[in-house]
Amino acid sequence: MDEVTDGMEHSERELARIRKRVLEAEKEKLNLRLPRGINNDIERIIREEIN
Amino acid sequence: MRLQRLSLTNFRQFTDDSIEFAHGEGANVTVVHGSNGSGKTTLLNAFTWALYDAVDFDTRPERLATEGAMAAANPGEKIEVSVTLEFEHEGRDYTVTRTAMFRKRSNDDFNGEIEDSDVVVEYREDGRATKVENERTALNNIIPQRLSELFFFDGEDIDELAGVDNQDRIQEAIQNIMGLTILERATRHLDHVAGEFEDEYAKYGSDELRELVQQKRDLEGEIDNLERKRKDKQREEERFAEEVRDIEQKLSGFDDSSRLQNQRKEYREREKQLKADIDNITERIRDEINDKGYAPVSMPLIRETAEELDQLRQNGVIPSDLTDDFLDSLLENKQCICGRPLESASDEYQTIESSKGDAPAEGVEQAALMIIGQLSQFSDDRSAFTERLEQHIQERNEKQQEIDKLLEYIDDISTELGEINDAIEGSKSIAEWEAERDRKSQAKDDAIREGSRLKEKIENKEEEIGNLEEEINDLREDRQEAQLARRRQRAAELVSGEIEEKFEDLKQRVRQLSNQTVSGTFGSVASKDLHAEITKEFRLKIYQDLPDRRVEVEKSTGERQIASLAFIGSLVKIARQRYESDGNSEYFTGGIYPLVMDSPFGALDKSHRREISRILPTLASQVVVFATDSQWEGPVEEEMSDVVGKHYRFDFDPGTGSGEYPCTRIKQEQTPTTY
After folding, report:
1. B195: closest CA of chain A, how far (Å)
2. What is the pLDDT confidence band of residue B330, given thresholds at 50, 70 and 90?
3. Buried b (16+ CB within 10 A) or exposed e, A12-41
4. Does residue B479 belong to the interface with chain A, where contact is any CB pair within 8 Å?
5. Does residue B584 carry a pLDDT above 60?
6. Residues forming a β-bridge with B552
């Protein structure tokens, strides 16, 4: 089932991939008190997945 | 992580030693015991030095190289210190080797100057060796340094884990291991990135869109400010609440003080009364002695006199027929008893005259007769006197004993009052403290009101944002860049929403699970009326069950140690359970961790040692225990001997002779499983 918003569709697979990659990125930096660059990492992930 | 082997070269008192770790089902305990100072803490530090280049020695922390090796070296020569840890993790066999070179600077230099240090991390997988480049990150991913104190812990400090000041560590440990931290961070970061994409959307969109997005940003900025103020008010409220609690405690100290003072006053009045009674009794005793005191004193003399008088009576001397008075009357009247006249110079006259003095004096005879007659009366008097005297004395003794007790009570109260008064600091009176309490209460209420007002403002602004978002959603932007940015923004928001839902759900489950496990582990070891609990805020607390309620208790050292052990053990257990049931979860960070403990039994009595020994092997797949000989022998050995897969003893030589230096060899002992 897809998320439909403003005519822009997001497939469940797309969202699942984003979620998986975001959580992996967070896990990589979990042990840092200040996970520098994580926002950039997440932004990059979303740009790659939705282009 | 499954430990395999630890090897040390020139590391403190270990010249060249190694330990292999037990990991079998049913024999998963490795025990190393020895005398105090033989190297238990050094072994624990070997783990953390190898993994994180971190040590925590109480004595000579700068002296890492073996003293004997440094002593044997010449100035300028270098000594290599190394620790190698071999372990298996997620199908790979890892070898971590940390080395440090120490140069001896002079003849009497035993610390050395560190010239080089390095760590090499390699793993073998499918027969192929691979060197890990980012060693620090890799090791932290396997067993995070921030949590390492929980898995490689010093039993002498462990009781502090359950103390008030370390609750944040507990909170962090649970959330970290259970994946909550990842989820919480992911939500926050995704929201930020969604905002970035919205800005991009506005950048490529129409003026109207830009205006709406700008308004939204402004509102978000205002909400951030209001949130900061609201949090300040919340902190203020908490601070005032705590101050009010402190004052109330002081006032209850005053109440206690007042009550105790009244009690002490009563006791003193009673003491005064008793002293007056004793004085009265003493007076009565004095009167008694004055009155009848002769009785016991003179009794022997009276008895002797009476016996002599009685003898006289028996002999017929008394009562005599003739008295001197009677004889005088005869001589005066010149007439004998028979009636014949008595001439002065006649024989009869002289005979009568010479008989005078033979008879006892009338008064004496009367007295003697009285004494004899009243002898029994004297005896009765003496008995009565003695009895009354004894009664008075007993009464006085009883009152004195009561006074002694009262003095004890008064002393106790004075001591207690002293302690209460110490706690009630400052020179404020009760009225002043009460006034201050009222002021703080009022300030707290003001903070609550202000917080509510701010919350309402925030909600209003959020509603405005909601309206703006609807307007933004209704806009149709034509530019492709704008549409793309919009899609990305929505994707970030949707994923954030999903993760947030998971977070809330997991938080509930984690708390329940950790609470259940900690409570169960603690309950199986501690006293039956004590319970450990992980609260909603993930704090570790201990409660005592009273007949009508449950109160949080100030934990004793032993109880803190048990609670800490129960918590750590439970964490390891939960991490293992979750790994085995849900190891593929995207956000789960748990795994199989060993439990390595230095002197976990120190503060515990024998019964608790036995209980802890019984449950420890069940908490982790691998348990490594360092203990003193006295801790090991007895209930611990009895409970654990069947599950010990590897047994070692520290053979410690303190090196007291000339040219000798402390050195420990690790000797393997036989275990039931190796017979």
Report:
1. 11
2. confident
3. eebbebbbebbbebbbebbbeeebeebbeb
4. no
5. no
6. B543
Q: Which of B612, B595, B652 is nearest to B629 (CA)?
A: B652
Residue A50: list chain B partners with CB under 8 A: 484, 487-488, 491
What's the distance, CA B330 to chain centroid? 108
Query: Do the Cβ atoms of B229 and B422 come closer than 8 Å?
Result: no
Mutate to test the interface with B, among A42, A45, A48, A51 (most CBs of B within 10 A): A42
Q: Do B483 and A14 touch (CB under 8 A)?
A: no
Q: Is the CB of residue B664 less than 8 Å from the CB of residue B651?
A: yes
Three-state DSSP string of B353-373: HHHCCCCCCHHHHHHHHHHHH
Whether residue B293 is predicted with pLDDT greater than 70 in this model: the reply is yes
Asked if B500 is an interface residue toward chain A (Cβ–Cβ < 8 A), one would say no
Chain A residues near residue B145 by CB distance under 8 angstroms: 31
B411 vs chain A: nearest CA distance in angstroms?
A: 56
- pLDDT, mean over chain A: 83
CA distance B579 to B573: 10
Distance in angstroms (rounded) separating the CA atoms of residues B546 and B532: 15
CA distance B194 to A45: 12
Q: Give pLDDT tens digits for B234-246.
A: 999 989 988 888 8
Task: Look at residue A44 in the predicted model and tell me its pLDDT.
Answer: 96
Question: What digits encode the pLDDT tens for the residues B548-561?
Answer: 777 766 556 667 77
Residue type present at position B18: S
B635, B610 Cβ separation under 8 angstroms: yes
Spatial CA neighbour of A46 closest among B89, B196, B476, B671: B196
Local structure of B148: helix, strand or coil? helix
What confidence tens digit (pLDDT) does each residue in B229-283 have? 999 999 999 899 888 888 887 777 777 778 888 899 999 999 999 999 999 999 9
Q: For A51, name the nearest residue in chain B, comparing CA atoms only.
A: B484
Rounded mean pLDDT, B351-367: 70
Considering only CB atoms, which chain A residues are within 8 Å of B148? none
Q: What per-residue confidence (pLDDT) applies to B469?
A: 92
